[in-house]
Automatic annotation (TrEMBL):
<dbReference type="GO" id="GO:0008706">
    <property type="term" value="F:6-phospho-beta-glucosidase activity"/>
</dbReference>
<dbReference type="GO" id="GO:0016052">
    <property type="term" value="P:carbohydrate catabolic process"/>
</dbReference>
<dbReference type="InterPro" id="IPR033132">
    <property type="entry name" value="GH_1_N_CS"/>
</dbReference>
<protein>
    <submittedName>
        <fullName>Aryl-phospho-beta-D-glucosidase BglH</fullName>
        <ecNumber>3.2.1.86</ecNumber>
    </submittedName>
</protein>
<dbReference type="InterPro" id="IPR018120">
    <property type="entry name" value="Glyco_hydro_1_AS"/>
</dbReference>
<keyword id="KW-0378">Hydrolase</keyword>
<dbReference type="InterPro" id="IPR001360">
    <property type="entry name" value="Glyco_hydro_1"/>
</dbReference>
<dbReference type="Pfam" id="PF00232">
    <property type="entry name" value="Glyco_hydro_1"/>
</dbReference>
<comment type="similarity">
    <text>Belongs to the glycosyl hydrolase 1 family.</text>
</comment>
<keyword id="KW-0326">Glycosidase</keyword>
<dbReference type="GO" id="GO:0005829">
    <property type="term" value="C:cytosol"/>
</dbReference>
<dbReference type="InterPro" id="IPR017853">
    <property type="entry name" value="GH"/>
</dbReference>
<feature type="active site" description="Nucleophile">
    <location>
        <position position="362"/>
    </location>
</feature>
């Protein structure tokens, strides 16, 4: 495997899925604090005791212990997010919350102490609840100004600590998950396409504005976009299926097109006309969009198939979406099809299209792990299935690099067990580190190294040469 010397190996988490401390040190409520079942709903009036995210894995109080374990694995980077409502409790506050700012100062300092570069997502499925309720989230243009205040604050605060930034997590997921992704309070069934795509426009403008502000405050920093990466294969060679795959690719890639090329792609003109969508552009929007990203980051868990034949539209589960199952692939316990070669294809697809550095910032296997005692009396998890999944995907990353793709790094999703975004449960585990907490709220929150912990440590120490 040919990974460059400065390849950024690491792992990824999100604040709302691991931190807990949802009401401590001045933090306001976020959209996640009233979503105890993840994307399946319902939304509650107030936080409820059955919401696993309120405690998460208590990363807020245990981050030093966890970062030390990441350092033991040899992490070069650690991807996390800033909880917007920890900095501006209501989102539209004038003055930031100092205790929230200090927490991330302390977290980033702890990472840097071990030589771990923070990779920070500015908005990761966590809109201040007040912005969702009072403004209907990103449907309202006022959120651009609130976001501008937020990013200016954190860029100024952490400009000497964070070199790598991502604007919106899986920004294209707003198409399927408007509440979680866009803080849109209007029920999904009642949300018009006009309002949805206007909200997307506001996010794209805000993202470009963040790039502009970031480059001004931090000339040496890199600001990237982050998309949900799902390659679409035609189910058959039928030209209708091929065209359907192209159509579905464009639905996702238009977000990256705007981020990288600085303008709406022409193919969206037809879609907007067909669906009677008229994007309201304020003076200066087109100029702001020209502030393009330094790199493209993406998540990759599954591929999908596309067909124009309605009789073949059976669905397979995926990361916040459903697609047509591929008859050549196996699936995980949650129905997500496993396709390592799809990652190589996705990397080549994006690099051919954009010629920008790529960063795989989410990839992993959610599984039910069993904590056992090994021959030395230590508690662990024998997760050979996770090792195989990650090994097979990383081999394909190596092949993509040999294809000529510029890959900056790779951060596995949920490098320590955390609460699932899609199902809000902890039994769906991704990590190299087992956290003793169960879906009924029981557990000690103690941490245990899984077998994959030492496997990933060797991958990093050999810069990928141990992959098979």
């Amino acid at each position: 495997m040919t990974f460059k010397k400065d390849f950024l190996w690491g792992g990824a988490v999100a604040a709302n899925q691991c931190e807990g401390a949802y009401n401590e040190d001045g933090k306001g409520l976020s959209t996640q604090d009233v979503a105890p079942r993840g994307i399946v709903g319902p939304i509650t009036e107030e936080p409820t005791d059955d919401n696993m995210k309120l405690i998460g894995i208590d990363f807020y109080h245990r981050y030093k212990e966890d970062v030390k374990l990441f350092a033991e694995m040899g992490f070069k980077t650690f991807r996390t997010s800033i909880a917007w409502s920890r900095i501006f409790p209501n989102g539209d506050d004038v003055t930031p919350n100092e205790k929230g700012l200090q927490f991330y100062d302390d977290l980033f300092d702890e990472c840097l102490k071990y030589g771990i570069e923070p990779l920070v997502t500015i908005s990761h499925y966590e809109t201040p609840l007040a912005l969702a309720k009072n403004y209907d989230g990103w449907v309202n243009r006022k959120l651009i100004g609130f976001f501008e205040n937020y990013v200016t604050t954190i860029f100024e605060r952490y400009k000497n600590k964070v070199k790598y930034w991502l604007t919106f997590n899986e920004i294209n997921s707003v198409l399927n998950q408007p509440y979680m992704s866009g803080g849109i309070f209007t029920d999904k069934s009642k949300l018009t396409k006009q309002d949805l795509y206007q909200a997307i426009h506001h996010e794209l403008v805000a993202s470009a504005m963040a790039v502009k502000i970031g480059h001004k405050i931090m000339p040496n920093a890199k600001v990237g976009c982050m998309i949900l990466g799902v390659p679409n294969y035609p189910l058959t060679p039928n030209p209708d299926d091929v065209l359907e795959a192209m159509k579905q690719d464009r639905e996702n890639l238009y977000f990256a097109d705007v981020h990288v090329r600085g303008a709406y792609p022409k193919y969206m003109d037809g879609y907007f006309k067909e669906n009677d969508i008229k994007i309201i552009m304020e003076p200066g929007d087109e100029e702001i969009l020209k502030n393009t990203v330094d790199f493209i980051s993406f998540s990759y868990y599954v591929s999908s198939c596309a067909t124009a034949d309605p009789e073949k539209l059976k669905t397979a589960e995926g990361n916040l979406f459903s697609g047509v199952p591929n008859p050549y692939l196996e699936a995980s316990a949650w129905g997500w099809q496993i396709d390592p070669k799809g990652l190589r294809y996705m990397l080549n697809l994006l690099y051919d299209r954009y010629q920008k550095p790529l960063f795989i910032v989410e990839n992993g296997l959610g599984a039910i792990d069993e904590l056992v005692t090994d021959e030395n009396g230590n508690k662990t998890v024998i997760d050979d299935y996770r090792i195989k999944y990650l090994n097979d995907h990383l081999v394909q990353v190596g092949k993509a690099i040999e294809d000529g793709v510029d890959v900056m790094g790779y951060t596995t999703w949920g490098c320590i067990d955390l609460v699932s975004a899609s199902t809000a449960e902890l039994r769906k585990r991704y990590g190299f580190i087992y956290v003793d907490r169960n879906d009924d709220g029981t557990g000690t929150l103690d941490r245990y190294k899984k077998k994959s912990f030492n496997w990933y440590k060797e991958v990093i120490s050999t810069n990928g040469k141990s992959l098979v």
